[in-house]
Amino acid sequence: MCGIVGYIGKKDSLPVLLEGLRRLEYRGYDSAGVALLENGVIRVVKTQGKIKNLDALLAKEKKTCSNIGIAHTRWATHGAPTKLNAHPHSDCRNNFSVVHNGIIENFSSLKNELIKEGHKFISETDTEVAAHLVEKYYKGNLKEAFLKAVNKLEGSFAIVLMSSKYPDRLLFARLGSPLIAGVGKGENFLASDVPAILSHTNKVIYVKDCQAGEIRKDKISLFNLKGKTQPLKVEKILWDLESAQKSGYPHFMLKEIHEQPSVLKHLAAAGIKFDKKLTGALKNARQVSIVACGTAYHAGMVGKYVIEEMARVPVSVDVSSEFRYRSPIIDSRSVLIAISQSGETADTLAAVREAKNKGAKIVSICNVVGSSLTRESDFVFYTHAGPEIGVASTKAYTAQLMVLYLFGLNLARIKKSLPVATISKYNKILRNIHTHARLILKNCSRRICDVAGRHHNFGSFLFLGRNLNYPSALEGALKLKEISYIPAEGYAAGEMKHGPIALIDEYRAVVCIAPESKIYEKMISNIQEIEARKGKIVIIATQGNNDIKKYSKEVIFIPKIAELFSPILAALPLQLFAYYIAAKRGCDIDQPRNLAKSVTVE
Ligand code: M6R
């Protein structure tokens, strides 16, 4: 949610900043801007729309060279996505320029105060107050003014400041939203995420919450919000830029779909281990609670079926944004699993903090190393899916599922709820599931593309599944609606007769997830009910079940697998189906409208 880049060093900063912005565009893309310090004057260039609009605008401007600058790609919170609201924002005299990610919750009262004191605002954003506050407090010491301003701000944000009076430094602070400092030689960087700077350095410092600092070309310092110096911990990024590029695929989403077999293979082979502390916490727990948002929430729903089935421990699953407001029953005997690709989702972090305050032990399942969620958790299981750039989550979802299955099996071992032979049989299935996933991508992509070609003009979709594949139906519907903008609803197939059946006619497309299972016959009854009402049926079924073809010509087969594990395989054709429909409709697949990859506001 908004991408920040900052640079100071010996290079011309503009190309560095623009490259960084392009790599952060997944975070928000409704407007963009840069501020460059040139001969003591801050030059701001900004525009509505994507980075390519900013490129075009800059191409028309006079070429200059500046060794220090800040840049921003925005996902609007306060104020429409206009040029005026685009970052960077400045004070009255253009001495201080800021870029910001997150929300300043008390901006309205601060703005009114500043207006009364004579400050002139030109945007509707919350960010602009930060520049005016620095202006207000500046009495010859930039660090002091910056910290005074930051201490006035409430909310969750990351902020970077450049001043015309200080061509040798950028200041920054983090309260909730992610920010890293990149360590170079004779140059240093700031960014919301690693890909922005990875072509320049793989050494980073993860700025912690309530930490501020300063980068100069040959020095990085960190301090707390009172200005007291804090130690630096430099970490090495182990993946390379190649992992954050499309590698010949037309979209990141398609590339990431195709990475799933390899992600699943490595996760299953590595397995997960419970240490003594986690084992103790789980033995002591009356129940396990799961919180997550969006796709990660659907993974959590599958996790409930899996953990209850394997370990016979009650599991509750909540959408993070609902969890904290429903007075959940959590105490020091509770274990809460938070699932998040980014580890920066504000709602999930808020739910975790709520549970932690009540004494729960926090286990996180997360993809981004060093993210806020992982730092606030007692135990972390990484999904090791590599950077996921497409806004629609794909490989992170199946990786989350894999970790949940491994978690369920480990818990079953502790609880002795499954015979040892069954645990090893299940482990074997998990270690082999990547071969099935590979077959689906190899053998079904063409077929799914054709089916999508016959369905991309439908005005709405229903996705139905039962038991473990009810969450698959929700996930299939979410994938389709977010990238193709076609209204799509996911339902438990058994619920159809309680309402949604009223929607079925020849204009309604219904995707039925019907792999071999103990409730297969029930699913067939639902399919017949749709057929009787002329709904256009697409079926996902088990390879070899030729009988099912009598209900629809549009069948996509997935390899045979024990029912318990079918959600992992069902995810792939659903992702491809959404992808090809969106492609046929000419949608912006990797950057769908109104969305951002990491949702760092509540
Ligand atoms: O980073 P997280 O996993 O916490 O993100 C949660 C959701 O915002 C995310 O899954 C979202 O629903 C995706 N766009 C779905 O494809």
Could you give the topology of this structure?
Elements: E1 3-8, H1 13-24, E2 31-38, E3 41-48, H2 51-60, E4 68-74, E5 89-90, E6 96-104, H3 107-116, H4 128-137, H5 142-152, E7 155-163, E8 170-175, E9 180-183, E10 188-191, E11 203-206, E12 211-216, E13 219-224, E14 229-230, E15 235-236, H6 252-258, H7 260-270, H8 276-284, E16 288-292, H9 294-311, E17 315-319, H10 320-323, E18 335-340, H11 346-357, E19 361-366, H12 372-376, E20 379-382, H13 395-415, H14 420-453, E21 461-465, H15 469-484, E22 488-492, E23 509-514, H16 520-532, E24 536-542, E25 554-558, H17 566-584
Parallel strand pairs: 16-17, 16-18, 18-19, 19-20, 21-22, 21-23, 23-24, 24-25
Antiparallel strand pairs: 1-4, 1-10, 2-3, 2-4, 5-6, 6-7, 7-8, 8-12, 9-10, 9-11, 11-15, 12-13, 13-14
This protein binds 5-amino-5-deoxy-1-O-phosphono-D-mannitol.
What do these coordinates show?
With 602 residues, this protein is of the alpha/beta class. The chain has three domains: 3-243, Glutamine Phosphoribosylpyrophosphate, subunit 1, domain 1 (4-Layer Sandwich), CATH 3.60.20; 246-418, Glucose-6-phosphate isomerase like protein, domain 1 (Rossmann fold), CATH 3.40.50; 436-592, Rossmann fold, CATH 3.40.50. The strands form four sheets. An eight-stranded antiparallel β-sheet has the order 3-2-4-1-10-9-11-15, covered by helices on one side. A hairpin with a 2-residue loop joins β2 and β3. It is globular, with a radius of gyration of 25 Å. The protein starts with a strand and ends in an 18-residue tail after the last helix. The structure holds 5-amino-5-deoxy-1-O-phosphono-D-mannitol (M6R).
